[in-house]
TrEMBL record:
One Pfam match: Peptidase_S8
Domain of life the protein comes from: Bacteria
GO molecular-function terms, A-Z: serine-type endopeptidase activity
Secretion signal span: none
Protein name (database record): Peptidase S8
Active site: D178, H226, S396
Family the entry assigns: Belongs to the peptidase S8 family.
Gene Ontology biological-process annotations: proteolysis
InterPro entries: Peptidase_S8/S53_dom, Peptidase_S8/S53_dom_sf, Peptidase_S8_Asp-AS, Peptidase_S8_Ser-AS, Peptidase_S8_subtilisin-like, Peptidase_S8_subtilisin-rel
Keywords: Hydrolase, Protease, Serine protease
The organism of origin for this protein: Spirosoma radiotolerans
Record-annotated Peptidase S8/S53 domain positions: 172-442
Length: 532
């Protein structure tokens, strides 16, 4: 099929009024004070009740397919695969507490607790701790242009190279956890997916009583379009027009709605964890989640500080790390859209978890960070975001592009572990190994990924230049009038990025105060300057 790079939303007519969204709640701190009495009609706060241990005699809650996947990856079954103790559940119910979600990974249940119930439950001998679930959420978004285009990202990541190699995500199971999938079964760009029964299972954790079709037919808010947009960015295609929108056009999908867009106050991290564990039980190894949790507690005293985006404070990041380390799942998550929010700026959770692949967003021409894209916290001992690609509509739509990229790699070699796939994606990125906390290792390139899969040598290694003084003049081989430059205070952390002009094949760079290293991005080549 000839690839014509075109606009994804031009075909999905009903997206014209939808705003791509990225949910941004914060999770509560390690342990909070007991709740105050709620007045009549006030929604009771929701909590995680963390339990001490499990019934070791319980059978694992996994399908044969999931068990086979674990064996293939040499990942042993352990107590995180066993269900929550039925004895403890019964004691909670006898105390008048009705569990909402159960997490075998975290060994916890979520529940709404009155002040009296909180005081009673926290004293139960099998309860290790109680941790609040964020009751408030801030949904951030970027404006949707009247004639949006996806073409730049498809050429940017070299989509035709995967197509020529016959890689379309065939035989790869992909989970999508999002805010809604309204109209997905009737969207023109997804017609081929539903025609071949490519969506195998659907679950709505917001409205458990809804049927399969209700999820596609019921519109509560514009956020319900979001998952459909994400799915189209992973697998969208129009064979009649020879147009490809996503890389994983032949993948198999499992969809979960965990976020409700028409309510201001709610806690939904438990829905997210429940969806992750459901997909794990079915043997799904690749999951896209374009939802990020950042800030927005009703009581500002309970808000996380940016410094707590550390990969292990939030329970949702703990669950993501368990998925990466113990379940062999590759989670691809949006880095966040808070880059221009001066009170925040950094990535949201679970993008802060070391084991997930966090995706930022770049400009179309220079491939540097687009303004809204969240940056990696300086306190992290590892690089975030991991990689990035072009998106005008928020990192919500850059993540699914890379999910399709991952599906193609997993089709090419199904025996690769999640961490090996993640490594290939990072090494295929155009700035590797000189990543930074603005765009990670840069934009993954299909040609480089294919070379890595075939154990072939990559193009010429990056140039390293030693420089002294305040300026350096570099000869550069490029036809561009301007190139992207990252001024860094160390190997990773960016002081500022700029578009530097190229004059007669030369680039003159001036060293900034406290600048130790500089990355010059020529797209086909990267130059790393070490200032002495």
């Amino acid at each position: 099929m000839t690839i014509r790079l075109s606009g994804i939303f031009c075909l999905l007519v009903f997206f014209a009024q939808a705003e791509p969204r990225m949910a941004g709640p914060r999770l509560a701190g390690p342990r909070l004070a007991a709740p105050q009495h709620a007045g009549p009609g006030i929604h009771q706060p929701k909590y995680w009740v963390l339990l001490q241990d499990k019934d070791r005699a319980s059978a694992v809650a996994l399908s044969p397919a999931a068990i086979a996947q674990r064996k293939l990856q040499n990942l042993p079954l352990d107590d995180t695969d066993q269900p929550v103790s039925a004895v403890y559940l019964n004691e909670l119910k006898q105390a008048g507490v009705q569990p909402i979600c159960q997490s075998r990974w975290l060994n916890a249940v979520s529940a709404q607790l009155t002040a009296e119930q909180y005081a009673k439950v926290v004293k139960m001998p099998f309860v290790k701790a109680i941790q609040a679930i964020d009751p408030a959420i801030v949904i951030t978004s970027t404006g949707l242009p009247s004639n949006p285009q996806m073409a730049p990202v498809m050429s940017q990541i070299q989509a035709p190279d995967f197509m020529r190699a016959g890689l379309t995500g065939r035989f790869v199971n992909v989970g999508v956890i999002d805010a809604g999938f309204f109209g997905a079964d009737s969207a023109h760009a997804l017609k081929h997916v539903f025609a071949r029964d490519g969506v195998k299972r659907v679950r709505d954790y917001v409205n458990e009583k809804k049927t399969h079709n209700d999820l596609f037919r019921t519109l509560e808010s514009n956020a319900d379009f979001h998952g459909t947009e994400v799915l189209a960015a992973i697998a969208g295609s129009d064979p009649t027009e020879n147009i490809q929108f996503g890389l994983a056009t032949d993948a198999t999908f499992y969809l979960a709605r965990t976020d409700q867009g028409n309510r201001e106050y709610r806690g939904e991290e438990d829905n997210w964890v429940a969806a992750m564990e459901w997909m794990d039980s079915l043997g799904v190894r690749l999951i896209n989640t374009s939802l990020g949790y950042a800030k927005g507690m009703s009581n500002p005293k309970d808000n996380y500080e940016p410094g707590q985006m550390d990969g292990h404070t939030s329970l949702i990041s703990q669950a993501a790390q368990i998925a990466a380390d113990k379940k062999g799942i590759l989670i691809i998550v949006s880095a966040g859209n808070e880059g221009e929010d001066r009170s925040w700026r950094i990535i949201s959770t679970p993008a802060d978890a070391q084991g997930v692949l966090a995706i930022g967003a770049t400009n179309a021409r220079l491939w540097n960070r687009i303004g809204y894209s969240s940056i990696g916290p300086e306190s992290l001992p590892y690089l975030k975001p991991n990689v990035a690609c072009f998106s005008l509509y928020g990192t919500s739509l850059s993540a699914p592009v890379i999910t399709g990229f991952a599906a193609c790699i997993m089709q090419a070699n199904p025996r690769l572990t999640n961490k090996e796939v993640m490594e290939i994606i990072e090494k295929s990125a155009h700035l590797y190994p000189y990543g930074n906390n603005y765009v990670g290792y840069g934009v993954p390139q299909a040609s480089r990924a294919l070379a890595l899969l075939r154990n072939q040598q990559l193009p010429a290694a990056p140039r390293v230049v030693q420089a002294t003084g305040k300026t350096v003049t570099l000869p550069v081989d490029t036809n561009e009038l301007a190139v992207s430059v990252f001024h860094k205070k160390d190997a990773i952390h960016v002081l500022q990025q700029e578009a530097a002009k190229v004059n007669n094949g030369k680039l003159i760079l001036r060293r900034a105060t406290d600048e130790k290293q500089t990355t010059v991005d020529l797209k086909k080549e990267v130059i790393e300057i070490i200032w002495e």
